[in-house]
Amino acid sequence: MTTATRGGDGTIRPYVGLRPYDRSEHALFFGREREARDIATIWQATGLTVLFGASGVGKTSLLHAGVLPRVEPERADVLPIARVSPRGITSLRPKVTGNPYVLALLSAWAPDRPLPALAGMTVSDFLAERPERLDRYGDPVPVLVAVDQAEELFGGPLDREEERRGLLRQLARAVEEHDGLHLLLSLREEYLASVLPHERPLGRGSRARFQLPPLTRAAALDATTRPLEGTGRFFAPGAAERLVDDLRTVPISNDEGQTTTLTLNTVEPVQLQVVCSALWESLPSGLREISVEHVNLHVNVDRFLTGFCDRMLARVSAESGVTSSEIRSWLRRTFVTEHGTRNTVYEGLHETAGMPNAVAKGLEDSHILRGEHRLGIRWYELQHDRLIGSVRQSRHPAAYLGDARLALARHNWETARGLAEEAVRASGSGETWVSAEALLILGEVAAAEGEAETALSRFEEAAGMFATLQRFNGVASALTGEGRLWLSQGHHDKAVERLRAALSWVPNDLPAHLALGQALWHLGQPRAALALLNGAVALADEPPAEALALRGEILADLGKAAEALRDLDLVRRHQRPGTIAARALALALEQRFDAARQEILDALADESDSGPVLVRAARVHALLGGAAASEGLASRALGAVTPGLPPHLRKQAEELLRRTA
């Protein structure tokens, strides 16, 4: 009789979910009896055993819960199953010297020993220290060692290749020096070719390979039904069969909506665990017999797999900083063909089809993608046909729009465009607010990419849609986008017109206040701009750095040094050349000449062709007594065009030239 595990809340859990089985869960591990028995036998009889299979097929679970319990302690000396990833070793502080792959292996074999005590020790040294174990006849028993996820030995950062080769040489040396050493390597099937050159030295001519396929239908039924023994629950006739056959059935839809159904001969273990765990959690308390009706009611394979996909994407998103919407959109565009089938793409030096390689690797580790090496190149595809529907499943439009705005903030224009368009597709028909929000984002993207006519068209269309919906904030945002676009093109009168229109819809709109202040400053109305910026700062719970910076610049230009420094000191982490020059001017007006001299040098070093920067530098040099330098800078300021001088600063430059003349 099996014994189900208990979760942290004390409830019985007969299925382990996404994580691998461990040795203590041998009583729950079903469907792999033949494979576990064969591998245990081969391992004890062969110098090198290579266990290989696809990612997520259950190699780790098989080793821990299937093979280890079948090795009799009296007949073999089994070391703990190890991984040789160097990440945990290289991140330690203080740093431990030595080959991190070797240290990872030895620390897995001797987890209680301090790591510094293992530094400098070879694999042969470690094995030589261990007392020899004898069987009841006085003969030495074989020493069994296994490396799980051994692909880490054959692939990874180029700068650690020699360290990986060093561990392989040490393992070969240990096999040669210790007659009873039997090595097992468990790895993804795409790395099998990398093992071939090492099979002879690692196995001393005695070697075997074992491929682990997905579960057969009969094995999947065992893995579904037998863990329930001892839980008080059981499947009614036909119920487990319905669940397993649902997992074997894959609907495939093309872009035209035509659907065909494919029935497979096998079941992916990771998908079976996802579904069985979700079923168990959804059953009412007190239920004993799980009927076909319960399976029909509670088992929605597509929903369970979509939930699994969502969780994995969220995890990879948290690790990579790329939003879930971006990853999902990339998966759908890249790995699903127009016919609704899986597509394969190759890994580049830094990106896979436009996505950072770290994201593809994270999705592989999460069993969303599978990778393999072909012709010296790594290729990726979806782990299983069944995930196509989950990947194509659209999120709520608001989620896409939110992620599109995040992409805008990161200046990732292409991603923002793609997510905005994705939001429209996900909304279907009749979602005018989604189209309006998407047009607003697409207008910002077009403006950033210099497509002024396209941007204006999209802002105008968005404003009309928002007005129809009576969403006044949306109208104000669209008009503000138009105003900022005119401002960037030097059409300050048009910018002021659109921004004042925005404030007529939402009088307290902060972005409109700030943009209108900038436009008025460019028109030569610094005091009017100052009033707008005072309002923008008062409206915000936390004053925006952009408003404080521009207000500080205007105050410095107006000669209000103390007030200018109050603002400019708050935004020193967000300084631009114009802000640095304004701070230099304020410092000079306060007679802090040494600090002013250094600040103006910094401003001119960063941007010497800006009219506002040059005229402020001219004023600083005039206060420092440098008439010739002041004259030259004022003359350059009058001729500057990137940007040119607004009228009030042009008057300052002309006045400086008159004084020096």
Automatic annotation (TrEMBL):
The keyword Protease does not apply. Keywords: Repeat, TPR repeat. TPR repeats lie at residues 476-509. The keyword Repeat applies. Residues 14-388 form the Novel STAND NTPase domain. Pfam families: nSTAND1 (PF20703), TPR_19 (PF14559). InterPro entries: CellSynth/LPSAsmb/PSIAsmb, nSTAND1, P-loop_NTPase, TPR-like_helical_dom_sf, TPR_rpt. Signal peptide: none annotated. This is Tetratricopeptide repeat protein.
